[in-house]
Each structure stands twice: as structure tokens, then as C-alpha cells.
Amino acid sequence: MGDADITASSWRQVEVGRVVLFSYGPYAGRLATIVEIIDHKRVLVDGPASSEDKVVPRHAAPLSQLSLTAHVIPGLPRATGSSKVKSLWEKEEVESKFANSPFAQKRAQLAKRRTLNDFERFKVMRLRKQARFEVSKSLAKVRASAKA
Fold first, then answer.
1. What CA–CA distances, in Å, run from 92 to 8, 25, 86, 108?
2. Which residues form the KOW domain (predicted)?
3. What was the pLDDT predicted at 3?
4. 127 — alpha (psi -120 to 50), left (phi > 0) or beta?
5. Average pLDDT over residues 18-25
6. Is residue 8 over pLDDT 80?
7. pLDDT-derived band of residue 5, with 50, 70 and 90 as boundaries?
8. DSSP codes of every residue in 26-83
9. Going by C-beta distance under 8 Å and a sequence separation of 6 or more, which residues neighbour residue 71?
10. What's the pLDDT band for 2 if we cut at 50, 70, 90?
11. What is the per-residue pLDDT for 9?
12. pLDDT at position 31, please?
């Protein structure tokens, strides 16, 4: 028989230590980590943070309110206490890693776009048209030199 090629899935798994972002609800936009899996719809989360207004208290949260991030706190034991979670959170520098991730940067860009007024959106449109024109002009120059 032939050898089977087994690869891991690229899906983010619900696991203990996975850092999550609250999509909506009272803690929308805050980070937390999964401490325990209660059932297939709920998890126990704890979110220590550097600033007091970003802290998420330990509670059961439905998975429908959470977005799984790519970050995992390795070696986090199941149902561990808040002090251990906080020490591992700071050791792994979760907040700074998340802030530098493409996911967080895209969220910040979308939030900035939402605050633009009509005239600012018009200026963005004009700048994008100018950039697109410069790209097409340089592309046309390259094509012309390739034909000659």
C-alpha cells in the first residue's frame, strides 16, 4: 500500500490557551483567553489586560460572540487560576503580538475608515485613482518596451 500523506487542518481550533477577541456584546473589541471548554457552544474565558478598561472578567462566553485569533498561550493548564493566566499573558506579550498582527491592523484600518466624513472619503477615492493611474502608466511603458 502507498503511504498516506496526513496534514493538519488550517482551521483555528477551539483549545485551552487560544486567544479570542469578543466580536460583540458587553466586551466587544477586548481580548481574552480560553481557560476551559464547557461544551460545544460555550467556553470559560479570562482576559487579564494591562489597562483596567480592557480587562475581561472570568465568565462563560458563547462561541458565537468570539473570534478565534492565531495566537495561543502555550502550556496553559486547564481551568487554571487567574493569577497564572495573568503571568503567562504578560510573559507571552499577547497584547503587543495581537496589535502587530495583520488581523488587528485591518480592524484598525476599517475603524478609521468608518470615522471618515464624506469629503475625506472623496479625497481617499481621488488618491486611489491617482495611484491606479500611475501604476497603469508604468505598466503601459513596460508593455511598450517589451513589444519593441
1. 24, 26, 10, 22
2. 17-46
3. 73
4. alpha
5. 93
6. no
7. confident
8. TTTT-EEEEEEE-SSSEEEEEE--SSGGG-EEEEEEEGGGEEEEEEE-TTPPTT--HH
9. 18, 19, 92, 94, 97, 98, 101
10. low
11. 61
12. 94
- Domains of the chain, by residue range, sit at 18-114, 116-147
Could you tell me which residues are beta bridge partners of residue 59? Answer: 45
Domain 18-114 CATH assignment equals 3.20.20.150: no
d(CA 45, CA 30): 11
The arithmetic mean of pLDDT across residues 119-141, rounded, is 96
In one letter, which amino acid is 106?
Answer: K
| 3-state secondary structure labels for all residues of 93-148 | CHHHHHHCCHHHHHHHHHHHHHCCCHHHHHHHHHHHHHHHHHHHHHHHHHHHHHHC
C-alpha cell at position 75? 502550556
Three cell numbers, residue 82: 487567574
- The whole-model pTM stands at 0.74
